[in-house]
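Quick one, tokens below:
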């Protein structure tokens, strides 16, 4: 009999830690917007958006692996920051 793939056991501490990383990265992106115009280079802004994308993808991957659904809002935000970081792919849904 074939073994069915089942979600891994949920580790709430790991998910909370990853979500904290997302919140911290979001705060760094907000700092770019809150500061005086021209304070940070576009390259630094793009780097911070990329860091946020990395954090969001890590959380989404871990959450999905244990069966936590991703909201449309989260997926939309991830697409937005991918674009801002220059990581847009042509097959995004």
């Amino acid at each position: 009999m074939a073994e069915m793939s089942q979600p891994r056991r949920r580790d709430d501490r790991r998910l909370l830690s990853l979500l904290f990383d997302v919140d911290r990265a979001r705060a760094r992106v907000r700092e770019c917007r809150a500061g005086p115009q021209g304070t940070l280079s576009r390259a630094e802004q793009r780097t911070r958006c990329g860091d946020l994308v990395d954090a969001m993808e890590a959380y989404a991957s871990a959450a999905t692996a244990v069966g936590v659904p991703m909201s449309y809002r989260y997926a939309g935000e991830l697409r937005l920051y991918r674009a801002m970081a220059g990581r847009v792919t042509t097959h995004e849904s």
